[in-house]
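Please review this pair:
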Amino acid sequence: MDHPSGNTQRLVTIAARCGYTAKGMIYITIGWLSMMAVLGMGGRNGGTSEAVRELATQPFGSVLIALLAIGLFGYTAWRLIQAIFDAEQKGRDWKGILTRLGYVLSGLIYAGIAINCVELLLDSGSSSSSTSSHTRTVMSHPGGIVAIFVIGLGFLGVGLRQIWRGWHHSYEKNWHLDEMSRRQRLIAANVSRVGLTARGIVFMIMALFLCLSAINTDPSDARGLGGALSAVAEQPFGPWLLSLVAIGLIAYGGYCLVNARFRNVNA
């Protein structure tokens, strides 16, 4: 496949870097809100929709949400480029195809968040559907229960993969390490390890609830990111556990910001 022109590559670079920055902002906000909830300072355990609404309440909130929407659409474009043009050179074997399909799914998820930002800016009054309502819709179709169970297994696989990446530093092959000082590498590696581990744990909790909802044929058992954080808070020593997860999600946001600056985004 032909290499992109210089102008095209510059656009891809801008889209990817803005996208990783926007993604980092969301996860930092989610972690911060959970930490504030633990400290009793008005936060709450929520997912991406709650994070977007919180950013909208800040000074110049509309500007923040507009920039967030642009960044997330950029991230969607980068994910689709990764999938369609095989920018990461994953290949066409079954493993490569699954990975590239994962890029598409990731892009669509963040496109949905970007659309949520636009709706918020337009004050359309639409509210994001809950995980349980989405699960109920899928279960209402033939084979829906099996589909939810398979999706749960998919989340489990993603969670385990995140933890593996965090501890084996596989993400470093995507960084321009020659542009980083030794100190920057050390800080980035530690932040990434904590962040990927925390996100992996949260995804595994979400996987558990999705699989349980399929086994019990009860959509209300399904929980998204906010529900997973609430589940952590409900455990013995919940506030301490939630604090650790919140710090981890903030670290994951930091990992996204490292990607925004140092990741190889050649198409």
Residues 161 and 202 are 12 Å apart (CA to CA). DSSP finds nine helices and no strands in the chain.
